[in-house]
Design brief:
Radius of gyration: 15 Å
Shape: globular
Strand order of the largest sheet: 1-2
Distance between the termini: 16 Å
Number of helices: 5
Order of helices and strands: HHHEHHE
Structural class: mainly alpha
Strand content: 5-15%
Oligomer: single chain
């Protein structure tokens, strides 16, 4: 499961749809609707929030906004607790070290499956975080399991 800390605009089609599916799975886990993935480390940052379902709902909403901007139709009715327009979600801190790690991982994936996007992203100064997250200085997050 990869719940990207990166802004969904950085993802290619496969990454965006995969992110939507993975976040829906995370929502199901947090809601107690599935037994799989209950101890997945990426869920720690959502569980640490006062309302984990609202946090993952805000995450899903931002992914759906990006999908809509690209002309896709992600079913927002599948979001258990969509954020209220008049009550913005509490932003979750993410370290710049974590963002840098994910940026490298994404670029490696895109180099193979979406070379044009890879080239465009390499021209950027760096990644933007997902709208739910705010960047703070620090190393890779303790919940991250870096590939061997």
């Amino acid at each position: 499961m990869r719940l990207w800390s990166l802004h969904p605009r950085h993802l290619d089609r496969q990454g965006l749809t995969g992110c939507w599916r993975e976040a829906l799975l995370a929502q199901a886990v947090l809601a107690g609707r599935t037994r799989g993935y209950r101890s997945h480390p990426q869920l720690e940052r959502f569980r640490a929030q006062s309302d984990p379902l609202a946090a993952v709902g805000a995450y899903l909403d931002a992914v759906a906004v990006e999908a809509t901007a690209r002309g896709y139709r992600f079913d927002r009715a599948r979001i258990d607790r969509a954020p209220h327009v008049d009550a913005p979600s509490k932003r979750i801190p993410v370290t710049d070290g974590q963002l840098a790690l994910e940026w490298r991982q994404l670029l490696a994936k895109l180099e193979v499956r979406s070379p044009d996007l890879h080239h465009r992203l390499r021209q950027q100064p760096g990644p933007e975080p997902h709208p739910l997250f705010t960047v703070v200085p620090g190393p890779v997050e303790p919940w991250e399991r870096e590939p061997a």
